[in-house]
Amino acid sequence: MSNAKAVEVYDASNICPDDLPWIPYFGVAHFKLLKANPVTGQTITLLKVPAGTQLPTHFHPGTVIVYTVKGSWRYMENDWVSKAGDVVYEPAGSKHTPESVGDEEVITLNIVEATLDYLNENGEIIARDNWESFLQKYHDHCAAEGISPIDVTKF
Amino acid sequence: MSNAKAVEVYDASNICPDDLPWIPYFGVAHFKLLKANPVTGQTITLLKVPAGTQLPTHFHPGTVIVYTVKGSWRYMENDWVSKAGDVVYEPAGSKHTPESVGDEEVITLNIVEATLDYLNENGEIIARDNWESFLQKYHDHCAAEGISPIDVTKF
Amino acid sequence: MSNAKAVEVYDASNICPDDLPWIPYFGVAHFKLLKANPVTGQTITLLKVPAGTQLPTHFHPGTVIVYTVKGSWRYMENDWVSKAGDVVYEPAGSKHTPESVGDEEVITLNIVEATLDYLNENGEIIARDNWESFLQKYHDHCAAEGISPIDVTKF
Amino acid sequence: MSNAKAVEVYDASNICPDDLPWIPYFGVAHFKLLKANPVTGQTITLLKVPAGTQLPTHFHPGTVIVYTVKGSWRYMENDWVSKAGDVVYEPAGSKHTPESVGDEEVITLNIVEATLDYLNENGEIIARDNWESFLQKYHDHCAAEGISPIDVTKF
């Protein structure tokens, strides 16, 4: 009678970042895509940035939670420095320019609800990343490196 | 090389409630399950309640948005009445007892983020509905009525 | 000892759209801002569009839920028509061009998680609306019309 | 003319856990409340559990994201172990019994959308924690210890 999917509850799963490759990002930085939700647009990523690096100014239409895993960083627009173990909460609609602080490489865990919209000096959007573009970069990287991608959209 | 799902963007879809059955709920009421997200737990339902009806007191761990499609209703704990065309916003952690107001049947559209936890007089949880139980009730109803269920968990 | 806010639970509240003005939007359309969450970026709006009207192509970084209150409409990119009583679910990252269908004015209720990004023919973002710009338009309209605005960011 | 709040955009802020106290939890464990959103119910907490400890079985009506900061742990119901640097994603409606693995203390960062509902052997809910109860425990702890609480609900 029924050809629809039966009621199936998804279970908690553990993501081990060691199983996922670092993917070049903006030349000097790298990211790992840990999870992407194609329905809500949420992404969970790791970002690795060398000491002495500034990343492009960007805008977030949705919320962002950042956990600083290693090193120290700040937004040029704010007066705080986030160091290893700190958590940054970004309400929807925030805009900022990240830079690493100090001599250590920076690694952050980022839970992003929508997109990162990269802006030029006039505030115009010149590039954008979201679950789809991160996933495409991951697949492209795997194809180029001969790696079998994990399905990070699976729950 | 790759055995993982390619990058696939889900598109907007229209849900026509006429395609879905009214399912008995608490004897006198009925609901239609329009959409259920097994990852986030969000459900979109219609609820139909006869005039002169009070539903059990319940608690919501997450947020709720209600659009009143038809009739008027209120929570016994609040001093407002929601009438057709109004929107009710319920922050996470709200608790209340709904009842229909006036002589007209009430229909509401409900966007619920987590569960409805039904409480006894001592505030103890005696029953709970969420995406999973609503979906089970929908499948059970379809099986009993000989209806082929639609996959309301598909995006 | 404590100078921080005590634990305070927000209660469910009813929003009556009759208490809020229609604000001109893209010349021919109008919107009402019912609720805006400055932390998550979620907005709840009503949109009113005359028969025979096409609105600009736009992209949504986050999810959208639309309830069709009156009339019929479609996205030019999709093969369905949404009529009064239907619900449209838009996963994050959807892009489309709305137009009213038939001879009747269209009114929709829209629950938007992030922004609407209006695109030109090359897919470049030329304008954007979110909780902040809708709220600014509401305040500007109130100032121009001599209306006292309601605080739609209050929960 | 206007007595409503002007349009005000919240900015990103950094939370330094060193500024917040460890609060006793289930006797042997401790938590820090880093952020609580009284509208959405989202909480961000740190949880510290000694080696060789099992915590009570609980159910989550909403989603949970866990980042393992230190040590290793597992759910007795699952076949994976989460170690420092791993991320656990829990879809809405998951149920499990956490225990620390190995000889090291465990610290996790937890982003929880709704509640933790503690269950007895019959699956009945016997206790519950959410933004409100965590916030109350934080304020109670501050009062008992003579600490001035920070407003963790502020964005």
UniProtKB/TrEMBL annotation, chains A, B, C, D:
Pfam families: Cupin_7. SUPFAM superfamilies: RmlC-like cupins. Residues 17-107 form the ChrR-like cupin domain. InterPro entries: ChrR-like_cupin_dom, RmlC-like_jellyroll, RmlC_Cupin_sf. This is Cupin. It comes from Sporosarcina globispora (Bacillus globisporus).
